[in-house]
Amino acid sequence: MNFKSSELFNEYEIKLLAPFVTNTDQSIFALKNLPEVIKGALFSRYSRSKLGLRSLLLKEFICSAESGFNEMAKNVSDKEIFKEDYIKKAQDFYDRVLDGYGDDSIGELGGAHLALEDISILATKVLEDARIGGSPLEKSTRYIYFDEKINGDYRFLKEPVLMDSPFKELYLSTCRFLFDTYSSLVKPLSSYVEKMNPAETDPVSPAYKTSVRARVCDSLRGLLPTSTLTNMGIFGNGRFFESLLQRLSVSNLQEIQEIGNRAFQELQKVVPSFIRRADSSHRHYTSWSEFFHKQEAHLKQAAEKIIVSLHEHTPPSLESVRLTDHDKDAEWKVAAALLYPHVSFSLSELRQQMHSSSGYRWKDLFQTLANERQNRRHKPPRALEHADYTFDLLADFGMFRDLHRHRILTQERQKLSTSLGYMVPEDVLMSGLEKPYRSALDQAASAYEKINVHFPHEAQYVVPLAYRIRWYFKINLRSLIWMCELRSMPQGHIHYRKMAQEIARKVMEVHPGFIPFFKFMDFDDHALGRLDQEKKKGNKN
Hints:
By secondary structure, this protein is α+β, with helices and mostly antiparallel strands. The protein has helices at 11-17, 36-46, 53-62, 69-75, 84-101, 121-128, 160-163, 168-196, 206-220, 238-249, 254-267, 283-313, 330-339, 347-356, 359-371, 397-404, 426-430, 434-454, 477-487, 494-510, 531-540, and strands spanning 111-120, 134-138, 149-150, 153-154, 229-237, 321-326, 388-396, 410-413, 468-476. Among the domains are: 11-102, no CATH class; 328-384, no CATH class. It has 21 helices and nine strands. The strands form three sheets. A four-stranded antiparallel sheet has the order 6-7-9-8. A three-stranded antiparallel sheet has the order 1-5-2. It has a two-stranded antiparallel sheet with strand order 3-4. It is globular.
């Protein structure tokens, strides 16, 4: 196939275009050296023009006096970037292009990388609630010890509201005690893990040391309060950031509001046009904010009435994995969806045929397709998205953090508290370190109960990750298989491995026909789960 471009450019035009495109003579190329807002404006115009992208870039941008681009093009080489004053000069023009030719989807044509450092673990969950259009990456609690002190104190948020309240000293002393306990247990727990899982070589391999550290970190992270400071990075498109900033601005927590304000200021420097509706003075923001607060008020009022009734008749369930909803006909519906692209019948006709046929036909089909998967990255067909499951989950906040990162699903959580109790890792129980572990968690619960009376939202910062939280998610079978196979891998955290295993078992019980698709589920227990992975890394070096 010939990928030569049908558009021809003269030498002068090639000189103008060269700094901004990867080639000028092929039909497939990429943009470069352009600010995100310019790329977004260009693509928004592209969808409504008969011109090729490079011709459009020349005609309506580079050679347009109104855009201010001509002045920029004279001075930009392959190794240069646009100067801020050039971008500012052209900004009004690009805003008009976006308003004139774009809708909400135009905000997806430009993106930015945002770094957020020294924010609380609680804040990271709010940021990661925004699922579509953004890719977050959070500092792990399993490879780094969190007992380091900076300027004589542990790294946790000095929550501003509590710092200006009668609970200041209670909050500070509780968080410090949790970190003190965490720090004091690192060495004895490491000795226990090494004793129970002796090294195979002398001297001890780096892979073994890393695996021991991961297991110790996994067991002790439950002591970390959600006020623990961490870092995260987010890459997202403009539409994602606009929506995220709006949600951050209406948070009940001052830290979240301040993160939103700071993020808005920084994103204005790189993708200003895409986030302008997140400005509190913008009419769209004003309307959205009013809608949000009214909606929340209605829901809160309705929930308060239900709570009274439920407390009278229903004790809270402590079941960790409950399958609350599924389609009993999902198997033959998935079978029909699998065959649909290969026939000329309607989906309804095909479903009827599959429903009335003998089950072995589509069960054999499932097995045949599953046999072709050679590893977990060979994803099952998209037709599996016709099967949906709703799970009500109860686990410690650390496990929620791990599973919360999956984005192709719908999930909501309840407010973090200490009312549902906490989980004690098996290594802590078996090593004889249970008493100090429980003592720290109990002290945190006492502090939470006192703070919660007056500051119910801020009280969450003192809750350690070992305390349970309740959340639900609705997920399709294809996404569920990916999540369960990934989270059951040997190197995963022992707690979320068990939850992933139980979720898979629940699906297999109600839909045994889907069992073959869970080909790479790991239902075994593993002592040093990361050891094999670390050995592989070591062999590559």
